[in-house]
Each structure stands twice: as C-alpha cells, then as structure tokens.
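Here is one chain, start to finish.
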Amino acid sequence: MTKQGRKAHCYGPSRPPRPKPNLPEQSRVAFAPGRANSDALPSMPTPQSRVAFAPGRVNLIGEHTDYTGGLAMPIAIQLGTTAAFEPELSSSRLELSSDQQATTGYLDLQFIAKSTTDLPAIRPGWIRYAAGVARQLWVQKRLEPVGGRIRISSTLPQGAGLSSSAALELSIGIALGFEGEPVELALACQRAEQLATGVPCGVMDQLASATGVAGCALMMDCARLSIDPVPIPDGIEIAVIHSGQTRKLSSSAYALRRAECEQAQNVIGPLSRPGITESDLSDLTDPVLKRRARHVVTENRRVAELAQALKSGDLALAGRIMLASHKSLAQDFEVSTPVLDAMVEKAMAIPGTLGARLTGAGFGGCIVVIAMSGSLDNSSFPGKFFAVQPSQGARLLS
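Its structure:
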C-alpha cells in the first residue's frame, strides 16, 4: 500500500500504526486471481468491461465504535449495488447513470485526478462517491485513468443506514479494475467517502462490504482490521425495518459525536484500549463527554458479549445485549429518535422476537431485529420490512 493509502485510519491520528490486517481464509480473496504478493503494487491492468457487486451491511452491534478503533459486528447482506463499466479509451470523462437516480452524471478525468477539496461540490451529489473512489485508486497508482460508462443498479434503499454509499464505492472500485486485497479496497473507499462528503466516517461499512462471509457475522476489530467470522445460529432470522426517516450523515450530528469522542480521548486516552472500564471515566467532568465515552466503552464490551452468546447459542442473552445497546445509543450517545424507539418497542412485542436496536449511525434509518424463525413478516411493518441473510462480500461478477 502506498504512503497515502495508509492515512485512511478508522481512529484518530494520534493512534499507533496498524499491524498487518488479520483476515480469515474466507475473506482473503483478492478481486483478481493470480496476484501473488498483496504488499507489492500491481502493474496497471488493461481497461476492460467489468461487472461488480458489493453488498450493503447491517450492523448487529458496535455502533459509533469504529472511529475510536473499537469493535463492531456487522453482516454483509444479500441486498447490494451492481456497477457495470464499459471503457472508452478515447474518452476524457466518465459517464455515470443509476436506476435510482433521475440524472446522469459526468466526471472529467483530469479534474478527478487533480482535485481534492472540490469533490464535495460535484453535482449531482451521488457521483462524488465515484469521483472519490477513482481519485484514490488513481493516486495510489492502482488504476490508469480511463474514460467510459458506468451503469449502477441497486436493491439497497438509500438513507436507510444499510451502507448504500459503501456498496456504491466498492462496486465502482472493482468495476474500474481494482486488483488487490479486500482490506486495501475498503481503506481506499473509506478515504474516498471522506474526501467526497467531508464526513469523517470510520471504516466499518466498507470493511464489512468487502469481507462478508456467507452465514456469518463479522467480529471486527477496527484498530487491527481483523475479522473473526461468527456463525449465525440455526433457527433465528434477521430483519431490517425502515423507520421512514431518511438520514444523511453530512447533515446529521455524526461529525459532532466523533469530535466529542476525540475530546474525551484527549482527557482519558483511547476509549477502545484493552481493559478500560467505566471507572476510568471519572476524570471526565463534562457530563456530555462522559456519556459519549460510556457508550463507546460499554458498547465494545457488548460486542464481545454478543459474539460469545451467538457462539454458545444463548439467544435470549443475545437479545438482551442488543436491547442494552439500543438503550445506550438512545440515552448516552443520543442518536436515536422517538420513531426508532417506538419501532424497537413494537418489534419486541411480537412473539418470538429476541432483540432489536437501531442500526447504522442513527438519526433515522433502520432498526435490526433478531427473532426465532417464522416470527417476523411484513404484516407488522408493511412496506418497511427487509429479511436479510449474512452474505458474501464484494466481488467481480464478470
């Protein structure tokens, strides 16, 4: 990875360098076969027509922990985004269209290659993600700038907290010709989103989409970029229910929450360091910072507890842990809404439901529910219900 690529951290700049990522064998699949050494830069691939798919993700637990180098447990899901790239070697621009957007966008290759601060000004807004991805991969010398057409189709609802932006970024990166390890692409796309939106997002969304394992949740350490697949027990189902409240991170308090966590860390040190407990928060005299820090510390513990509950088959405990997470997000981190709270309460009243919580950054979006198989259907939440399955990560289709 180049020096620039290593700046894409999921924690603050004061944290030590990451060790080499540790991925399970299922996630060690490069997007192009035959690359023997993932630490060496590849030669420029010849542009060719490519079709790629990247899944969305649902986070079972571990919210607002990734940017402090903490733990999370997302699943890649079967819903996702497909990008089809048709190169035109004589063209000096990329043309982008989407089945979810009314407007076709155009990106000038020279502008993308040189611009950084101007990316958030690109219109229509959705193509700035593509601009960020292309620029990152070109700057890292992974791709030769080439014009052409990119056609996007997606089964992910936008603004629902299911990482539609990460799925868009990864699918475009692979379609344009990225060759390398999934972690490398996730880091490039994280940086691309930061450049394109100005939002200081963590790496969890991109990493979950890149490294998904069918049938498993991903126990994710965002400091070490390590993944431990946790099998989802037989007999339970996972559902995502949309609140109807569409959110945008750039217009939400996401950046403020991250800044509050960084302020807390300036006082007491890293919130996700091993062994930290609530007693270590006593030096935080600001009550808001103390609540934010308490959420991160207890949420990291809940991630580890949920992993153990799923491995041991203690489904009742798993449900209680998810409910405790929602309570912490609502009261300590203050990212829930009355609508989300009411949906969690309604879901828990359905016989067979084990646990529920908001998923994603909050401020709207979705809740995630785990229940005994056959307990959930669309009748309780008509038009807002998605049954999801833990699925394979981003990949080249053709």
